[in-house]
């Protein structure tokens, strides 16, 4: 393996100096790319020369273009078997990469790229493979399925990419990656990209890459100093109401609001639209043309708010974005850094706001430690401040309309009405303003005494600053599910009670394997094609975990989950027998307390699933 190269700087001459195909350069001009990022400048030349590349770079550094552009420049535009395969850890990333290929190949007529992932029916994928595709972008599990079925033929493969290899390791896909690599022709070019290089990833590189060019791009470990970071301690007020109040009182040009799920982005965008705000959602389900239209509307000032998931917002660079609001706290510190990096671009100042619930205070501290910057608490704008802004905007709208002119016809109508009904013009203007305002009240109502008391209690429950030592525990902090991140001890182990309409399964991975809730939920959601909202209660124990999945889950999904790995451990999923061995090994329950599965059943384990039958009886909601 060749020695690592030093960090690289962007090529000053731009993409035209990189010997890319003219059609590809035209596409880059269309999308407004001017000069390559460090990872692109360092990796595109060796990839164009046919060299293997081992790239270490964080998400959001431009890795997709770093491998997509040279592949498109060297691919043969003939129909047939796939010439390139990109392995990605998640459905969302596979879609994003496939969209990027399509975008960069806009001037290559006949080019075909196919994303394949779990949760999507096989029919369209099989039809596309039969017709012939140039590039396949897929998650390891679904690629293995196609290889086993004989529907994916890699005999003519020329290029292979492992994208976010460490994430595939974390999600337990590394054995699948090995299997896929072994089915490839020996004479193929390989590019491996990973944010970190743990030993298993280094071993894959040694086995499957031939004298690779090593590129290391150091990502900023701290957030930009020109971004002011604040958090709001989520109190009794609903998050949506609080966000609306912030949006009204906080001067901003354009804003991205981050939510965890695709459904949440759409629901939030609809609710903001209903409140009179120019908002739209982008997520992994949004078609590329629509995504581009929405982003262009944001650039043109026709939209002010974009509600997005992490993956959908990657690579988004719009000068107007002055604020980033984290409606849902991210699962990891790196995601937080990438999120708020959407503002404060090119030296401009930016604002980042983070909503934090009591159970998420540990994550707040983790973000501060990782970014080495304190995040200041923000006060929710008062009712008076919001009303002052509303009145100010109301008056400004009048001034703007007067300045536009063209009011002669309306003036005549007002004069006629005033004379005919003997009503002063000021009263007529007030009536017209009432019509224009519609059902939405002009002013907010002041808080009731009860709301003031609740706010006072929540204020007392706030954590002290992360650098001032241990926070006070909220007086009424909500009880946590097993497996939630907490910063106090000891952990109280609660019995697992199956949720209604679901069935409990046991998986052979737990705290001893270093697993976190996100690892399990992410792997199951991705491989089973289930939206995370349909995955129920998760209880992580010592060497196993219990998880609730929809009752009547199709048998093929159940069989597929048996092959899934998390944190280098096979799930080995099986139906739960009602025994929760860990309960009772920690501090005992209060006298007289019965486990949930025993209440009302004479001490016998409650049959889980509530619907009876074996897996395969019905179909839960699936990803679209």
UniProtKB/TrEMBL annotation:
<keyword id="KW-0347">Helicase</keyword>
<keyword id="KW-0547">Nucleotide-binding</keyword>
<dbReference type="InterPro" id="IPR011545">
    <property type="entry name" value="DEAD/DEAH_box_helicase_dom"/>
</dbReference>
<keyword id="KW-0378">Hydrolase</keyword>
<keyword id="KW-0346">Stress response</keyword>
<keyword id="KW-0963">Cytoplasm</keyword>
<keyword id="KW-0694">RNA-binding</keyword>
<feature type="compositionally biased region" description="Gly residues">
    <location>
        <begin position="612"/>
        <end position="624"/>
    </location>
</feature>
<dbReference type="InterPro" id="IPR034415">
    <property type="entry name" value="CsdA_RRM"/>
</dbReference>
<dbReference type="GO" id="GO:0004386">
    <property type="term" value="F:helicase activity"/>
</dbReference>
<dbReference type="InterPro" id="IPR005580">
    <property type="entry name" value="DbpA/CsdA_RNA-bd_dom"/>
</dbReference>
<dbReference type="InterPro" id="IPR044742">
    <property type="entry name" value="DEAD/DEAH_RhlB"/>
</dbReference>
<dbReference type="Pfam" id="PF03880">
    <property type="entry name" value="DbpA"/>
</dbReference>
<feature type="short sequence motif" description="Q motif">
    <location>
        <begin position="13"/>
        <end position="41"/>
    </location>
</feature>
<dbReference type="Pfam" id="PF25399">
    <property type="entry name" value="DeaD_dimer"/>
</dbReference>
<feature type="compositionally biased region" description="Basic residues">
    <location>
        <begin position="589"/>
        <end position="611"/>
    </location>
</feature>
<feature type="domain" description="Helicase C-terminal">
    <location>
        <begin position="239"/>
        <end position="386"/>
    </location>
</feature>
<dbReference type="InterPro" id="IPR014001">
    <property type="entry name" value="Helicase_ATP-bd"/>
</dbReference>
<dbReference type="InterPro" id="IPR000629">
    <property type="entry name" value="RNA-helicase_DEAD-box_CS"/>
</dbReference>
<dbReference type="InterPro" id="IPR001650">
    <property type="entry name" value="Helicase_C-like"/>
</dbReference>
<feature type="domain" description="DEAD-box RNA helicase Q">
    <location>
        <begin position="13"/>
        <end position="41"/>
    </location>
</feature>
<feature type="compositionally biased region" description="Basic and acidic residues">
    <location>
        <begin position="576"/>
        <end position="588"/>
    </location>
</feature>
<dbReference type="InterPro" id="IPR050547">
    <property type="entry name" value="DEAD_box_RNA_helicases"/>
</dbReference>
<dbReference type="InterPro" id="IPR012677">
    <property type="entry name" value="Nucleotide-bd_a/b_plait_sf"/>
</dbReference>
<comment type="similarity">
    <text>Belongs to the DEAD box helicase family. DeaD/CsdA subfamily.</text>
</comment>
<dbReference type="InterPro" id="IPR027417">
    <property type="entry name" value="P-loop_NTPase"/>
</dbReference>
<dbReference type="Pfam" id="PF00271">
    <property type="entry name" value="Helicase_C"/>
</dbReference>
<dbReference type="InterPro" id="IPR057325">
    <property type="entry name" value="DeaD_dimer"/>
</dbReference>
<feature type="region of interest" description="Disordered">
    <location>
        <begin position="576"/>
        <end position="624"/>
    </location>
</feature>
<feature type="domain" description="Helicase ATP-binding">
    <location>
        <begin position="44"/>
        <end position="215"/>
    </location>
</feature>
<protein>
    <recommendedName>
        <fullName>ATP-dependent RNA helicase DeaD</fullName>
        <ecNumber>3.6.4.13</ecNumber>
    </recommendedName>
</protein>
<feature type="region of interest" description="Disordered">
    <location>
        <begin position="441"/>
        <end position="510"/>
    </location>
</feature>
<feature type="compositionally biased region" description="Basic and acidic residues">
    <location>
        <begin position="447"/>
        <end position="489"/>
    </location>
</feature>
<keyword id="KW-0067">ATP-binding</keyword>
<dbReference type="Pfam" id="PF00270">
    <property type="entry name" value="DEAD"/>
</dbReference>
<comment type="function">
    <text>DEAD-box RNA helicase involved in various cellular processes at low temperature, including ribosome biogenesis, mRNA degradation and translation initiation.</text>
</comment>
<dbReference type="InterPro" id="IPR028618">
    <property type="entry name" value="DEAD_helicase_DeaD"/>
</dbReference>
<feature type="compositionally biased region" description="Basic and acidic residues">
    <location>
        <begin position="496"/>
        <end position="510"/>
    </location>
</feature>
<dbReference type="InterPro" id="IPR014014">
    <property type="entry name" value="RNA_helicase_DEAD_Q_motif"/>
</dbReference>
